[in-house]
């Protein structure tokens, strides 16, 4: 055979050396293995990592980017690898954070993302996004196996994985649907656990920010042993992590605990399109003219009267030297429409958003493996975990546009007198509702995952064949509860107060008969009875149950020795069933969907169809689909020459049958060429990848709203329409074309320790699933542009109300292109000092990231460099380490380039072209880049006990100011963080 034992030893060194950094390249010499202190991330390899099993299987190779598991195979897809030492060195309480720092990951979620959300159900969810294509287009695996989703989009929560037993994490930077199936459009993140761990290891860590918040405590313990002559292997781990999070700041502009970077930056729409000035203006210290902390009269002759907490009137201080026009439109002379600059900012609510969700994790994992023979193992695993998070979406529950009667008994006498003088009986009013307190969202995710499998190797006709067979059942329960939130229609009834028989009551008799209690929103002193009426103790809730069942078989081997080496093949099949069911409270889902009673009694004041809450109107729904698929992969070595080098061709094909959308094919073809020039390799691969619609897109729980004056282009009249936001079971899979090509230089003899790689990528996703507005659905049918939308509505229904089903369609497309650069260099005994010094760097450059909605009259938007999104033009991570054997130092730099708040804008200050919906004008679209410096150190107290410390964001770099809020998936909102702990092993 072509690969002898020396070749296998070289492969082993390439994939286990702590000096690895270049994806697809052998990086470090044997001496790097002498390193005893953990090195920092990232480590990288060519995707050829030996499986830690019995001695007889040391030559078996596991390749995340491929299903071929034989020695000597090099996958053509770039694969970055983080080892357990690198993960430990980054000293994060959640391994998710370490991986998300890699440049190729753009737009991942986490505890700093979705903190402003009430209804998404994604608060605190840790999930990855490769190439900026979204979490739904990145496949996350555990030991090469799928994991039940923790959200109806199908993405798992990495926080529920057994993190202390993670031996390495493979990040495949390219499409892998032919190998692993749906969702692997951007790539794959595969967590590999140590199935043969022996001994005891532990980690205790504490952390806190420089602002004294987000106090963190982490305790991890893992143990493993063997018995019955080393045939029975027992491995288990447990961990507890509690992170207090960073709650909301005060009303106005004060963030939590003294952070000073928030300036209430707002995108102001002048509403003028063609006067030579920009339509949109970016302004700091923006002040809404439609509400204040304890109430403001916003229009009419009394405009500008505000109220303090005691309900006493005063003249509101508008910014920009604004003067109320006291007209019905509520105009403020000298201000922008809806906003002034400066003045009394105390009523602004955006500073109340949590900067980081609080999180509490409890994970348990166990594995029992029994070797039937030295080469064949039967195993069972159980992963049971729970993650609780909570966040505050915003301060208060602001309600602009209210109408109060002058005769309302809560209106101060001075104001009632002013009403009489002005000859009015009511006035427009807006309030932040600070007196109602702040809403909080609680999530509770519980995962129960079990796997029964067998893996090993058998000889057939003198040829060894590897197999991996498993069955998996996973269940995830997600509970979402919202606390301290108002019922909008009850609120409207409660603020409409009057006096009856000398007692202040709700004006509406029906509301009074059903428990209405009058609410004083003039100032900040509502009664306890009124608060109980508008904000029941049991608020909105959603209960979701998701299940995943998988049966899979994979076989690989090398049946034939050819002129340049063995022909290796892999084949197999998989069956998967996904199911979800979600139930919600009656006030949100509707009385027909969820019968009222108990904590949610029937109330004629409320809408029977639901949507009664201020936010968090969850719905009921359920759905399921099944998948049957088969794949074949082959690796053909076709060149083995001292003069020309060595080359192989790798290809795969997968056929998949979805119960909802039929049959789809995925394939890939690529290869590698080891040049006759010392250390150089060329690689490339192109693939057809797929993403099937997820449970949410197919079977979304319906949300119903009323459109009273919807324009019907067929009759040129306005009609009453019921809008139903629903799933679309007719959706087809998204189809992607993914191409990568690169060159690597790995530890050449003429420059030992030097490693470089360059990989170019291009991805195009067609038939992208995206939602359309009701108007778009009707217009696309009317214009005969998209005939399939015609079945989504009926505007001439004589037997019942007209309706429009707002659904997702396979309409849009995404195109992205860029390249990755990775490099490392290692010095042995630098300047005569003991140990070694290593410099490493990874960078990703996004050339373009173009989204085309597919709608007529729209212009595709290039999101590369959109820093309010997730795809800066440049993102890099650099690490320098010095390791003396007992002591180590780490310095890490994270950086991304400056960008914009949106590339669709035309930036101008004067002489601007006419502003359009596709190309709006703006005076400033700039968002700066950012640079973060992290430092860390370790010290071995004794051989197996290590003290460590780390400071993230050493210079306490503030995030960028932006419209509404900066992007927490890109910018650091937390500030300087201190962490310290101890690791031990026996």
From TrEMBL:
Signal peptide (residue range): 1-34
Domain TonB-dependent receptor plug: 74-188
Keywords: Cell outer membrane, Membrane, Receptor, Signal, TonB box, Transmembrane, Transmembrane beta strand, Transport
InterPro entries on file: Beta-barrel_TonB, Beta-barrel_TonB_sf, Plug_dom, Plug_dom_sf, TonB-dep_rcpt-like, TonB_rcpt_CS
Domain TonB-dependent receptor-like beta-barrel: residue ranges: 429-954
A GO cellular component entry from the record: cell outer membrane
Short sequence motif named TonB C-terminal box, residue ranges: 969-986
Subcellular location: Cell outer membrane
Membrane topology recorded in Swiss-Prot or TrEMBL: Multi-pass membrane protein
Protein family: Belongs to the TonB-dependent receptor family.
Protein name: Outer membrane receptor protein involved in Fe transport
Organism of this sequence: Sphingomonas trueperi
Taxonomic classification: Bacteria, Pseudomonadati, Pseudomonadota, Alphaproteobacteria, Sphingomonadales
């Amino acid at each position: 055979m072509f690969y002898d034992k020396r070749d296998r030893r070289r492969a082993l060194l390439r994939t286990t050396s702590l000096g690895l950094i270049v994806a697809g390249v052998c990086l470090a010499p044997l001496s790097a293995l002498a390193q005893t202190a953990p090195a920092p991330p990232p480590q990288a390899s060519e995707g050829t990592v030996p499986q830690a099993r019995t001695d007889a299987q040391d030559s078996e190779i596991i390749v995340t980017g491929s299903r071929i598991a034989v020695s000597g195979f090099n996958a053509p897809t770039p694969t970055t690898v983080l080892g357990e030492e690198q993960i430990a060195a980054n000293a994060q309480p959640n391994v998710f954070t370490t991986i998300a720092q890699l440049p190729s990951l753009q737009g991942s979620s986490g505890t700093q993302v979705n903190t402003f959300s009430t209804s998404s159900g994604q608060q605190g969810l840790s999930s990855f996004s490769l190439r900026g294509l979204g979490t739904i287009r990145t496949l996350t695996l555990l030991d090469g196996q799928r994991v039940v989703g923790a959200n109806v989009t199908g993405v798992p929560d990495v926080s529920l994985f057994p993190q202390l037993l993670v031996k390495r994490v493979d990040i495949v930077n390219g499409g892998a649907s032919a190998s692993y199936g749906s969702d692997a459009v951007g790539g794959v993140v595969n967590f590999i656990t140590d199935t043969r761990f022996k001994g005891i290891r532990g980690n205790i860590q504490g952390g806190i920010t420089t602002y004294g918040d987000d106090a963190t405590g982490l305790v991890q313990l893992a143990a493993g042993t063997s018995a019955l002559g080393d045939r029975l292997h027992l491995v288990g781990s447990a961990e507890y992590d509690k992170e207090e999070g960073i709650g909301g700041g005060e009303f106005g502009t004060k963030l939590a605990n003294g952070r000073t970077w928030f300036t209430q930056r707002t995108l102001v729409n002048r509403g003028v399109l063609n006067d030579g000035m920009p339509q949109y203006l970016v302004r700091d210290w923006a002040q809404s003219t439609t509400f204040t902390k304890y109430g403001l009269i916003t229009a009419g002759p009394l405009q500008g009267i505000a109220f303090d907490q005691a309900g006493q009137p005063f003249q509101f201080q508008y910014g920009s030297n604004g003067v109320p026009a006291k007209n019905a439109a509520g105009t403020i002379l000298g201000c922008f429409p809806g906003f002034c600059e400066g003045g009394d900012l105390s009523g602004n609510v955006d500073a109340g958003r949590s900067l980081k969700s609080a999180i509490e994790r409890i994970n348990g994992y166990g594995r029992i493996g029994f070797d039937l023979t030295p080469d064949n193992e039967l195993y069972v695993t159980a992963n049971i975990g729970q993650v609780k998070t909570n966040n505050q979406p915003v301060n208060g529950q602001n309600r602009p546009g209210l109408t109060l009667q002058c005769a309302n008994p809560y209106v101060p006498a001075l104001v009632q007198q002013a009403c009489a003088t002005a000859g009015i009986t009511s006035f427009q009013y807006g309030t932040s509702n600070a007196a109602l307190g702040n809403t909080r969202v609680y999530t509770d995710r519980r995962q129960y995952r079990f796997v029964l499998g067998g893996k090993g190797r058998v000889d057939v006709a003198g040829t060894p064949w590897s197999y991996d067979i498993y069955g998996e059942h996973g269940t995830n329960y997600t509970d979402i509860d919202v606390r301290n939130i108002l019922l909008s229609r009850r609120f409207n009834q409660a603020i409409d107060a009057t006096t009856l028989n000398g007692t202040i009551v709700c004006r509406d008799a029906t509301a009074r008969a059903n428990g209405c209690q009058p609410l004083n929103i003039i100032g900040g002193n509502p009664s306890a009875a009124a608060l109980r009426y508008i904000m029941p103790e049991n608020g909105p809730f959603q209960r979701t149950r998701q299940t995943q069942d998988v049966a899979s078989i994979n076989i690989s081997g090398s049946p034939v020795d050819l002129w340049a080496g063995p022909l290796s093949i892999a084949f197999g099949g998989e069956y998967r069933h996904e199911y979800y069911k979600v139930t919600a409270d009656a006030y949100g889902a509707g009385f027909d969907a969820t019968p009222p009673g108990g904590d949610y009694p029937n109330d004629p004041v409320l809408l029977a169809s639901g949507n009664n809450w201020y936010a968090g109107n969850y719905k009921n729904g359920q759905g399921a689909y099944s998948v049957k698929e088969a794949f074949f992969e082959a690796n053909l070595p076709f060149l083995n020459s001292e003069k020309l080098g060595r080359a192989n061709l790798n290809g795969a094909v997968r056929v998949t049958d979805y119960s909802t959308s039929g049959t789809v094919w995925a394939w890939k073809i690529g290869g590698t060429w080891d040049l006759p020039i010392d250390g150089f390799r060329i690689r490339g691969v192109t693939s057809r990848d797929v993403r099937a619609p997820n449970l949410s897109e197919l079977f979304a729980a319906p949300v119903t709203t009323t459109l009273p004056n919807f324009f019907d282009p067929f009759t040129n009249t306005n009609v009453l329409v019921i809008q139903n936001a629903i799933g679309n079971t007719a959706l087809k899979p998204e189809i992607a074309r993914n191409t990568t090509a690169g060159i690597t230089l790995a530890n050449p003899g003429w420059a030992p320790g030097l490693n470089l790689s360059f990989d170019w990528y291009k991805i195009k996703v067609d038939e992208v699933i995206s939602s359309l507005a009701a108007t778009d659905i009707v217009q696309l049918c009317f214009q005969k542009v998209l005939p399939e939308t015609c079945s989504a509505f009926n505007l001439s229904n004589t037997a019942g109300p007209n309706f429009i089903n707002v659904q997702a369609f396979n309409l849009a497309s995404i195109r992205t292109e860029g390249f990755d650069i990775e490099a490392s260099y290692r010095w042995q005994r630098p300047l005569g000092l003991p140990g070694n010094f290593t410099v490493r760097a990874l960078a990703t450059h996004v050339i373009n990231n173009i989204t085309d909605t597919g709608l007529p009259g729209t212009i595709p938007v290039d999101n590369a460099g959109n820093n309010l999104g997730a795809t800066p033009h440049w993102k890099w991570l650099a690490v320098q380490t010095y390791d003396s054997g007992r002591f180590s130092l780490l310095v890490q730099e994270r950086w991304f380039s400056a960008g914009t708040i949106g590339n669709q804008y035309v930036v101008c200050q004067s002489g601007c072209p006419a502003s359009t919906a596709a190309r709006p004008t703006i005076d400033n679209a700039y968002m700066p880049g950012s640079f973060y410096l992290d430092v860390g150190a370790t010290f071995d107290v004794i051989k197996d006990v290590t003290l460590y410390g780390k400071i993230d964001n050493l210079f306490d770099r503030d995030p960028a100011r932006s419209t509404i809020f900066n992007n927490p998936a890109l910018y650091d909102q937390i500030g300087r963080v201190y962490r310290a702990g101890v690791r031990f092993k026996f």
